[in-house]
Amino acid sequence: MTDIPLLSLAIWVPILGGLLVLATGSDRNAPLARMLAFAVAVAGFVVTIPLYTGFDTTTSAMQFVELTSWVPRFNINYHLGVDGLSVLFVILNAFITILVVMAGWQVIQDKVAQYMAAFLIMSGLMNGIFSALDGVLFYVFFEASLIPLYLVIGIWGGANRVYAAIKFFLYTLLGSLLMLIALLYLFMQSGGSFSILDWHQLPLPIEPQVLIFLAFLIAFGVKVPMWPVHTWLPDAHVEAPTGGSVVLAAIGLKLGAYGFLRFSLPIVPDAAQQLAPLVITLSLIAVVYIGFVALVQADMKKLVAYSSISHMGFVTLGFFIFNPLGVEGALVQMISHGFVSGAMFLCIGVLYDRMHSRQIADYGGVVNTMPKFAAFFMLFAMANSGLPATSGFVGEFMVVLGAVQFNFWIGFVAATTLILGAAYSLWMYKRVVFGKVANKHVAELEDINGREFAFLAILALCVLAMGLYPFPFTEVMHASVNELLRHVAVSKL
After folding, report:
1. Can you give 103-169 as a three-state secondary structure string?
2. Using an 8 Å Cβ cutoff, are 332 and 398 in contact?
């Protein structure tokens, strides 16, 4: 099995399949485009399954490695590999792509082939980010993945879609330009190597380490997004179509967090230790302050968008308390957030498709007309609150435990998100779902159909399975997390 280029397949099957879908042309061929997109998405997921079944959990070394010379003159290589920090995100990305294709099946009626192709191509590019072990290759995938999402927001988004798309593009592009400068500096310091693994061994003085760390912090912090560079996310979410919001929340935000693990911590570990208080402070502000901001939102999508910022604050907090519980909890939280936030946006999309409103005040009593939907929505709202036995609890609990080990008061402040999460999630749910039927539009709502039931049921199973038995996830990342922390600790000495 290892002789098969699985990572290349995970990248290029969706990209080439997306180009094939694009070739179906006009909306006269929309049914063909949908069927072909679904087949490509399933194929893209199937080729990632051996990455998990064949993964050796006892080693922190890179696995399924592929190395081919790309630009020999500058020592740039097509170098792929995954470890316990990245393999689960390749699989999650391929899985979410299937759900996005299903979610847009009936809703998208204009430029269907282009819509489906954008998500397939974006899926392949994001798998490239999680797999790249060459700095230039990583940067190419990182920048290229902006383009499909920019088009999805700008073409199929809401009334202010152009503003939201440009704001999203400029924020992330300007941040990543600083990353490019840092990558070029590392290239020169390593004697002409773009290998990320070579950079992990560079003995850099503390002054350049701090500058490189700050460059990475801005580049990846915008992508997470961390406070105070988070303002592009609510706009992007509100204007994006449902599929765009799902991919942005479930995968897009993880790219920045993953960058901290692959670049910031192992390449400049001394600076990471020195500037950890800064990142922890920014993370706690995101957890608490943004949680309060979510409480006052009148738009359901905007509420869940701010909720995502708060939950991702937990992720960056977990990374920079430098203990196994914190880092593994943050990784679990990233996977869980992919399931839960994706499900929340899909639920809001189900309501929006019927009433064309995201305003909480326009709803009330939905349970009376959509009981099946209300049951799914309740599970996901509970998971978003961190209810035990759901995936939302596992990561947050691990990070809180790790934070308490690091510093009791940091753990105490972080734990407030469990209260805030319950407050904004359940209060929204109460106003939308419970009570008497609010108006004639709610009275005319139809419950979820078979297609909607299918993708919500799949996500419900994922949320419950991860919440009840997280071991298959933590087992994969354990060796790589321990090696990363050993590397950071040794460097400190």
Report:
1. HCCCCCCCCHHHHHHHHHHHHHHHHHHHHECEHHHHHHHHHHCHHHHHHHHHHHCCCCHHHHHHHHH
2. yes
DSSP 299: B
Q: Which of 331, 346, 335, 154 is nearest to 250 (CA)?
A: 335
How much of the chain, in percent, has pLDDT values that exceed 70? 99
Q: Would the pLDDT of 16 be above 90?
A: yes
Dist CA 302 CA 297 (whole Å): 7
202 DSSP 8-state letter: -
**327-341, 381-395, 409-423: which range is least confident on average?**
409-423
- Residues linked to residue 63 through DSSP beta bridges, in sequence order: 82
Rounded Cα distance between 334 and 248, Å, is 13
Q: What pTM, to 2 d.p., does this model score?
A: 0.89
Count helices and strands in the chain by DSSP H and E runs:
24, 2
User: Cβ contacts of residue 338 below 8 Å, gap of 6+?
Assistant: 92, 96, 249, 250, 251, 254
Look-up of token digits 């991919």: 247
CA distances from 109 to 116, 179, 242 (A): 11, 39, 14
Residue 191 burial (CB count, 10 A): 9
In this predicted structure, the answer to whether residue 377 has a pLDDT above a threshold of 70 is yes
Q: For residues 163 and 234, give the distance between their C-alpha atoms in angstroms, rounded to a whole number.
A: 12
Residue-wise pLDDT tens digits, 121-136: 999 999 999 999 998 9
Band of residue 2 on the pLDDT scale cut at 50, 70, 90: low
* Tokens read off for 342: 């994706």
CB of 235 closer than 8 Å to CB of 160: yes
Q: Output the CA–CA distances (angstroms, integers) from residue 49 to 89, 124, 244, in the order listed.
A: 12, 15, 24
Nearest Cα to 73, choosing from 183, 182, 201, 194? 194
